[in-house]
Inverse folding.
């Protein structure tokens, strides 16, 4: 017997975040998500922010983010949103619980 898993898998593109006129892609493959969970477990979100950003964003997108000159609060919102998207969570649900 061959069990076909293809129809149950999600082969969509990585999620994207739009800030002003810039679009940033969030890496959401399983390997990135597992590494991210490990980093967050070891360090916590704020302490792991640089390592998490390296996992979540391509060098080109990290350069775009740097060019936005975000303040720490806005950068934290971006990072929390990207983490939620990478892990398959709804970022709006995550932010509602913090407000």
């Amino acid at each position: 017997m061959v069990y076909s898993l293809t129809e149950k898998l999600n082969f969509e593109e990585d999620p994207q975040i739009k800030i002003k006129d810039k679009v940033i892609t969030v890496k959401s493959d399983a390997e990135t998500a597992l590494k991210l969970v490990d980093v967050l477990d070891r360090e916590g979100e704020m302490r792991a922010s640089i390592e998490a950003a390296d996992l979540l964003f391509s060098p080109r997108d990290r350069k775009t983010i740097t060019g936005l000159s975000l303040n720490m609060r806005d950068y934290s919102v971006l990072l929390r949103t990207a983490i939620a998207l990478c892990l398959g969570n709804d970022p709006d649900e995550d932010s509602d619980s913090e407000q």
